[in-house]
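Standup notes
- HV: blocked on the assembly model, inputs below
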Amino acid sequence: MGSAPLSLRGLRARREQAGMAVLLALVGFVVITQIRTEWLIKRDLRIPSRELEGLGFALRQQEQSRAALEAEVADLRGQLQEYEKAAAEGRSAAAQTNRVLVEMRALVGLTPLEGPGVTVELHDSPRALQPGEDPNKVILHYSDLYAVVAELWAAGAEAVAINGERIVASTGINCVGTTILCNTKRMVPPYVVAAIGEPSRMAAHLRRPGGALELLEAFDFPVKVSRKTRVQVPAYRGTYRFEHTKINR
Amino acid sequence: MWLPVVGLIIGVVLGFLFSVEIPLGYVKYTAIAIMSAIDTILGGLRAQLEDRFDLAIFLSGFIVNATFAAMLAGIGDLLGLDIYLGAVIAFSIRIFDNVGFIRRDVIMGYLKAGGRGTGRAAGRSAS
């Protein structure tokens, strides 16, 4: 062995060692980095990196479904808001409509009403007919009832009924033979006219000189006017029907 | 023989000093690469002990093995097959083999050296 090969071998060995040192430095660095990363994963996520992919997949899926659900929630929330708005508008509109409707029904006589008022009781004349006397003179006529009703309206009556038949806009009082018809229902005496309104005013108006009742009493028809604190007027039982009428708006 | 140890220590210190985070998706590949690197280093150590070390073979082995192992893991991912487990097993077996040979070489070195010094000293005197 000469000195030249020896130094060459030494140089080679040195170079080999340097190369290995560099590699070992690299490996040491990577190993430590890997260990630190793994340690970080375990510390932060509390799961080993082996399970990361499966969990990542599950997470992505969950995130997707969550995004879809969130979109749905937003959508539904928007819908709900619209519904609520519509409901609020509808509620107030419906309440308004309902209030008007109740008033209208009361006005046209479709609801039973009560309040202070008067009742007028009318009887056929108890007087015995004289021979050859016209029987019309002792029985009440539809015109008499009509007159009483008209006087009540004039005295400020708000609702009127005869023998439980409500007087409405389409009510006619007429007669067929000896029977008085009201709302096309047959009436039999005694006729009780009930009216809601101010009792004393209506009573006074009915009792005024030259009124319908004075005329009836003059012909011996028994008439009885009573003021009441509570008069009940039933609802109109008939129907309203427009066959030929068009409503002009 | 001290130079590689110094290199290793420098690497470890650098690893502690600079906190480089490996992206979560690549942790598996770097682990495989590290396995291959450990295998190569032990192979190199053994070769040095047996006095048949060659830097070119060592370097190429280091690079090619690490790269190929990582590639294998990647292909396994593409195929949906845990091929990297094969690499892990192969490297593990080789690491154990190398450790066994190194152990034998060191002990033999001790026995040959007798009272003259340590195995390492014997190795150095051989080189």
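- HV (later): unblocked. The interface with chain A takes residues 1, 3-12, 14-16, 19-22, 24, 27-28, 30-31, 33-34, 37-38, 40-41, 44, 48, 53, 55, 58-59, 62, 127 of chain B (CB under 8 Å). The mean pLDDT of chain B is 79.
- Next: hand off to the docking folks.
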